[in-house]
Design goal:
alpha/beta, 8-stranded mixed beta barrel, about 20% strand, globular
Length: about 250
Amino acid sequence: MSPASQAALSGAVREAVRGDQVYPHYQPIVELVSRDVVAVEALARWAHPCDGLIAPERFIPAAESGGFIGDLFFQMLRRVCVDGLKWRSPVQIAVNVSPHQFHDAGLADKILSVLDRTGFPPHRLEIEVTEGNPMLDWSRAAKIFQTLKAHGIRLALDDFGTGYANLGHLHMLPFDRVKIDRSFLQAILERAENRTIVRSIIALSRELGLSTIGEGVETVGQMDWLKEAGCELAQGHYFGFPLSAEAIEDLL
């Protein structure tokens, strides 16, 4: 993308945030043994007036590079809290935090302020941070994680196995869950090395007292393999696509 195109996209996304055009859809997270929906992940969608719903991979990088990812995140978080309080089922809701946001030392206090103002219970919120991003300052993030954890918010390491976290981070930081990256599951039934990696992640997580979520499950074969390997939770198109707040309430 040319610099001019990038600038135009960044400006359009900024106006979308100001115009309240970005809102969450929710993808179910399923307990593999019971097949119950026990949580959902909030995923940003841009309701473009001409192009319809736009997926986050097309506009989140523009929000990050433009310096207003925090504005977008807190707009999303407020909507997530309001939506979640309406649902009859008090499931947990996972929300992604950009590595760029950890440059803000007040991030934890701002998240807690949103929960306080909306009345959303901290134990129902899970903050996800993506492992595979070199931008994350782990030492700075650790202080923020500790504050969030002390207030009952759960923490998950997303896309585990893709790169920049190490076993020291997994052991020392107060994560509750590890999300196994979808790239390992796409060929899990065909590639022995993928099965070895996923079994290792599940075993390591269990030893550290962490639950595991398999991402990107699309077939019954993948689901059955994960369950037999000891993975507790899963999400993906096999269980349901991201849905609006109203539609996910009907599913719950």
